[in-house]
Amino acid sequence: MLIGLAGRRMAPVSPEVFVTHVLTIHVRDGWVVQRAAFEALLERVKLAKRAGLVVRSRPRSRQPYGVYRISGPEAGCAPARETWLMSMSPLRASCDCRDFLRSSLGVCAHVFAVLVDVAKGPEAELRAHRARALTPAIDWDPVRPLHGDEDPFERIRTAAVMATTMEGDPSPEESSLPAPLVLSSERSARIRAMASWSRLHPDEVTPAARAVLDDLEAEVDGLGRRAMHNERAMESLDALHRPLYAYQREGVARILSAGRLLLGDDMGLGKTAQAIGVCHALHHVGEAQRGLLIVPAPLKRQWAREWRAFTDLPVRVVEGDPAARRKIYDEASAGGFLIMNYELLRRDVALMALWAPDIVVIDEAQRIKNPETKTAQAVKALASPYRLALTGTPLENRFDELASIMEWVDDRALAPLWRLRPVHGGLREGGVMALGTLRARLEGRLLRRRRQEILTELPPRTDTVVPVELTGAQWCPHKSIGRSIARLVKDSKRRPLTPAERVMLMSLLTKQRIVANGRAQSDFEAVWPMIEGAAPSEAVLTRLSTPKLREMRRLLRSLVVDQERTVVVFSQWRRMLRLVEWATRDVLRSAGLRSVFFTGKESVRARDRSIVELHDDPLTRVLFATDCAGVGLNLQRAATVCINVELPWNPAILEQRVARLHRLGQRAPIDVVNLVTEESIEARIASVIQDKRAIFEGLFDSDLDAIDFEPQETWWEVVAPEDQRAA
């Protein structure tokens, strides 16, 4: 089957070479993993052909095994990559490129270019199979074990001669064991000794082994250097204007020790304060003269205020035209900290790389969960020694999104990416597996604390689902749109959808969600001019075929008027919020109360005024908000009820909304009310949210190793929120 899958794509190399290789290195791992490995290998073949890789030099002897140098088609355009071919039966090669070191395939584009060169001429490949294999003194096994935590040093393989010539005078028992190398408690000393030996004998050490030893030696040195500074760095926190809580100091200590970390604390635990504390401490000990904080654009000013509330270290907000921004970078070249939004980073990433920050902090790190986006690529171009990713939602939809974030923090943690789905499952697979392995591999690079563990005084939260009927006027267009969606989904099972078809699918899903909200929203352009100045009488509400409006009247009368509580009403669409405000205006006015808006339509000044009024004006009791208020806002002292007019696709966005109220400083019990239209796409979204939440909690907040649930057979049911926004 694998040979058939390869077809002629590997010519002139026989596909049997790669098929045998994949089945050998994953002999115990099952067909699902073997096929996924072969498909990943085919991607490397495609990459090699697209790049037009050329062999620049070959082994001096006529033997096919030895050292090759590979580069692009233009000589001198990039450094030639050193690649070793050591055997064809079985296939053994080595390269120091990042893909070889992380893919667990034992093959990369450079290795394929070597094999193409070897296969030239009649029976050339057959002669290569018969040649004597090359045995280096030190090699490194590129295939990472599927399960459990593991040390890449454990995959170092050494020939017997190595044991007698390497520094350290190993014992006779160790000298008789060429592979695997016996490890002891003196790991750091052994790494340094082997790295030093490999530099003295580069012709006897494979390029992958050299690269791994160099990385491990740098890691050991970094740990030692940070350990020397950490005590003074932690003492410097006493100089902050605001004291950190004990758990926040613990977080700072973990970040200082690790150097690179994903801080995944629950929302409301003060990730911003911990990040500022880290920057302050590193600057104090001379480890960070320049620092870059990358945050969503609406939060730049808030970050600046928080920064100045904690520390006197200089900080500047990056803004203005290109000339103004360049001036800011020049003035900060001697030292200082910059706060920049993601959009400006994309434009100025080359300048930022030259500016060379010692520490980079990214807030709302889920912004880089898609590795194909320009935002993710820009962030990953910043190779600073200290890296801190902040997000309360490190996993939103799929494991590969978490892996994309971790790729910047530590690209070794969850590699290889192609194995995540076949080994660990997902929504489409009807369950997740081997969560213990993921937790073990994340342990040193991820710190997560839950609010209920830290904030024992946090008040209780009650979640309520309010079912809403689907009227006949909604059912017909909802069903019609569903048939169009089904046709595209059926096509997607036979072939990949074209970009235009994918956009169409996203658009149809959005339309179906809008219809589930109500016909008044789907027909807004025609409806709004007729009702804007009219009273929301029972007859008018019935004609609108939008039952959620009637339900919102009931909820706000009960919660705001009768119970005298303050409410935040969330919807993805401002039009729906306008309809809700219209439908409930008389309810609030009859009690002398009013509402305000916080959406992308209002100016920054208007949004700020709405928040001030919600806090300070006792008559302002309802905030109508889109998801631009889902991050960065602190409403715990203003409101006690969160109403979601419709559920977002992602549980992370839902939790972000709720966390605006249910956070440190909230003293009253919190109610979360979710309106869900029955027998509609919203009911399916509710099911998907439940499964996504189970995966998140299973990985981060439990010791479960596997979770089973109903498989999501159609991939559009788990489409990412950004796809909806794109539509």
Give an overview of the whole structure.
- The chain is of the alpha/beta class and 727 residues long.
- It folds into 3 domains: 2-217, no CATH class; 240-454, Rossmann fold (3-Layer(aba) Sandwich), CATH 3.40.50.10810; 461-679, Rossmann fold, CATH 3.40.50.300.
- It is built from 31 helices and 22 strands.
- The strands form 5 sheets. A 7-stranded parallel β-sheet has the order 9-10-8-11-12-7-15, sandwiched between helices.
- A hairpin with an 8-residue loop joins strand 1 and strand 2 (66-71).
- Helix 12 (271-284) crosses helix 13 (300-310) and helix 15 packs parallel to helix 16.
- Residues 161-184 and 713-727 have low confidence and may be disordered.
**Could you tell me how far the N terminus lies from the C terminus, measured between alpha carbons in angstroms?**
38 Å
Number of continuous helical runs: 31
Low-confidence stretches: 161-184, 713-727
Mean of pLDDT: 87
Topology record:
Blueprint: H1 2-6, H2 15-25, H3 31-51, E1 54-57, E2 66-71, E3 81-88, E4 91-95, H4 98-103, H5 109-118, H6 124-130, E5 138-140, E6 156-158, H7 160-165, H8 172-175, H9 187-200, H10 207-235, H11 246-258, E7 260-263, H12 271-284, E8 290-295, H13 300-310, E9 315-317, H14 322-331, E10 336-341, H15 342-355, E11 359-362, H16 374-380, E12 386-390, H17 399-409, H18 420-424, E13 425-426, E14 431-432, H19 435-442, E15 446-447, H20 451-454, E16 461-468, H21 472-494, H22 499-517, H23 519-522, H24 524-531, H25 538-543, H26 547-562, E17 567-570, H27 574-589, E18 594-598, H28 604-616, E19 620-625, E20 641-644, H29 651-659, E21 670-677, H30 681-700, E22 707-708, H31 721-726
